[in-house]
Amino acid sequence: MSNPSHSSAFKPILSRDIEHWDIDTDVAIVGFGGAGACAAIEAADAGARVAIFELASASGGSTALSSAEIYMGGNGGTPVQQACGYQDSTENMLNYLRACFGNRADEDKMRHYCENSTDHYQWLQRHGVPFKMSELKERAIMALTDDCLLYTGNEKAHPFPDAATPVPRGHNLQIEGDNGGPLLMKLLTAAVEQRDINVHYDSRALRLIINDDGAVEGVVVRIDQREHTVRAAKGVVLCAGGFCMNEDMLRTYAPDFAEGLVPIGNPGDTGAGIQMGMSVGGAAINMDSCFVSLPYYPPSSLTYGILVNDKGQRFINEDCYHGRVGYNALMAQKTSQRIYLITDVDGYGDYEKLSYLGAQVAGTGDTIEELEKELALPAGSLQWSLSTYNKHAKNGEDPYYHKSAAWLRPIKAPYVALDCTVGRGPFYPFFTLGGLDSKPTGEVLDFNRQPIPGLYAAGRTTAGIPRTASGYASGMSVGDATYFGRVAGRSAAVRR
Amino acid sequence: MSNPSHSSAFKPILSRDIEHWDIDTDVAIVGFGGAGACAAIEAADAGARVAIFELASASGGSTALSSAEIYMGGNGGTPVQQACGYQDSTENMLNYLRACFGNRADEDKMRHYCENSTDHYQWLQRHGVPFKMSELKERAIMALTDDCLLYTGNEKAHPFPDAATPVPRGHNLQIEGDNGGPLLMKLLTAAVEQRDINVHYDSRALRLIINDDGAVEGVVVRIDQREHTVRAAKGVVLCAGGFCMNEDMLRTYAPDFAEGLVPIGNPGDTGAGIQMGMSVGGAAINMDSCFVSLPYYPPSSLTYGILVNDKGQRFINEDCYHGRVGYNALMAQKTSQRIYLITDVDGYGDYEKLSYLGAQVAGTGDTIEELEKELALPAGSLQWSLSTYNKHAKNGEDPYYHKSAAWLRPIKAPYVALDCTVGRGPFYPFFTLGGLDSKPTGEVLDFNRQPIPGLYAAGRTTAGIPRTASGYASGMSVGDATYFGRVAGRSAAVRR
């Protein structure tokens, strides 16, 4: 019989209908990005036979496209945090994450991660991942030096210091330029290759194979234009990325992000892993939520500016992480036709040289009145917002949005406005944060939070630690993917 | 075998495993609210044997709890619209709905509804539903007179007049007081009782019954503490409401609405219909979206006031529908600790007598400065917002939020502030707008938008016409439920 329960594309098949198994393994891993690599290494180290099936012709996934500033801390601090003079407790890190994700948070996963991310640091180091005992103090979206530690989120921005003591937790790999992701995947790929792991490239997972009780027993994979049946005695681990490249899924599940933004990820981020999981009863959660960014720094000096809507109103403390700013800017556009970043010439600084924002100059003015007219803002609105901001900034205060004193200084004539409206130039990258519900062990859960035997997942195929753009910090996704990839691989390997 | 694909709670069973059918019918309808009643009437009129299974001891569902101001128009206008001097074209109505729901809209359903809602008016009238040829001109959340026609949405509020000519489409039943819902369900129930329809009360649908190809062939229902197998030769129609009473589902699927709000619906709105649909592969969509309201009128005179956040900033044109205001107020609270409605004594008017908002007076002042201090707003912020508002209101203008001139007048001392913050008194009712994807015919769709044979749904078990609170108008849900309930019943009845 066909399994009646799902769309034809990813409909599972029954193991008893399979006459011949083409490949026999203990743990079958779908996807060879950060999560899949780590799952494979741990599963092999736990003694399991492991096979990886990767859609592309090489490893990497979206991890290789990222900056790979891995978010780690807690437990007294990583060696780098300690060397740089920071203390970080597990509770402090957990409190921070709770403040980040509110009622969308997965408390179990967060606690697990906060308790173990310093161990994860050691594990990465043992696999050759280099971290320098140094800090990058610049406000940056990514480290372009080989320095390690940097603030990659909202730790110092209102209201987060009320919830947790600010500590930097982004760990950049020791390599010049924005090359952390490629280096990380090169090292993890080498670790896979050193082990007795069968890697199949150009291999597309099509359907899960289940027994009569619904337990996952394998996966059908298309290799060389032929469908291969893969028996996975211990389990299948779905590490197939998110769905930012699947327009249908975006329109269906994440409509707020479905138009005008730029997906960042690899072409395989089509949600196939999520759909395979759903096809056997896995619950897909947090599907409406994406990471989105307005990367308005570098230059960091633009942080001295203010963001306003088409009423000339500010709407965020501009010292937030670019993801929080991006999300709020995007939501503001539900009732505002335009978003502008207002800066002075000092703040504008090296914008044309350093920025990759793509925002055009929408207006300039020797007076605010002039700029306000040029931007067609309500008469007096920007004058009020800016004069009020300046009056308080002079005293190091922002009674409206609580931008920290470090980023407060009066904005002086002449003025420049950058158009930060979606669709009018600026780069708004996004990727998905929804996926299969799972336990910290990697076990995929059904709607009643009961595990589906034999099915595991990690990375953006799951709803992991990061749940919203407004709480996101760089390194949370790679941290979550690599760490929970490891746990999922081990869990599958030791399953009885 | 058990069907492996879903959570145990609603796991479907295979028809070939059924030894005895307790009940045999053509069309089995789950739920006897507005959608279920209309489905039953149409299915019976199309010649099918029909059975209704209702959880409660009487008909009604959430329709009976509503005001039942049915949203209808287009096609030249309903008789009431015409009698009251309004013209309404199908395209105008469709343009309005498109503006309401943006990229969440279901174009097929909307077109179907706009083309046929005047026919629906006639159908309701034939079943005894009384509409008076009169208009209620007061801005009201519900009609307390027996007048029929009223504006129940954002038709006249910015930016909607840019998209469609404003026309009132809310049709209140001819009955005094807020009694439209009970009357509607009384009449529809009588129409059911006049037909040869088997109604089973105190009957809980548990699982769908499917054949080996995944087609739905019946439903298991618990009656008198015993499970009954119901064979539905033509189909099962799920009309079991939404999920506003299911806290787990809310936290999982609609986290923005899961805390501090008041669910409005009947106790059976637990999402059982949606979960049964999902259990056989139905796609649940728009699940993150709910209707939510801040019912700050009556008295309508409060519309002359302004809503501000804890920065003293306005964030919405206050002449919007209470659902749009409620949604924006709720979202504003992601970056604001307080929401206040600022009014003068004239605007406050009969608040204490007429309102059911529950908002407490947070402060009063003979000057704005005094009120601003009492509310702990940034110094000067409310003074700026209010003086700016007043300056323009005097000229009938609102260059910031484009409130219509009809609701613009300067707010005069002394001032009153009502605390509209969630959790501090005000009533924020909500219900869910996510559910099974379906065709206008009522056929339930899988993720690839392929129908699941034998399965139909209507009402809030589906994602219907209304998709967001910001685009909602009163009467859209009852209109959608009753109209598409009819179509679903007929579709099932004539299925080959």
TrEMBL record, chains A, B:
Keywords: FAD, Flavoprotein, Oxidoreductase. The lineage of its organism: Bacteria, Pseudomonadati, Pseudomonadota, Gammaproteobacteria, Cellvibrionales. Pfam families: FAD_binding_2. It comes from Spongiibacter thalassae. The keyword NADP does not apply. Signal peptide: none annotated. Its cofactor is FAD. This is FAD-dependent oxidoreductase. SUPFAM superfamilies: FAD/NAD(P)-binding domain (SSF51905), Succinate dehydrogenase/fumarate reductase flavoprotein, catalytic domain (SSF56425). PANTHER family: 3-OXOSTEROID 1-DEHYDROGENASE (PTHR43400:SF10), FUMARATE REDUCTASE (PTHR43400). Gene3D superfamilies: FAD/NAD(P)-binding domain (3.50.50.60), Succinate dehydrogenase/fumarate reductase flavoprotein, catalytic domain (3.90.700.10). Residues 26-464 form the FAD-dependent oxidoreductase 2 FAD-binding domain.
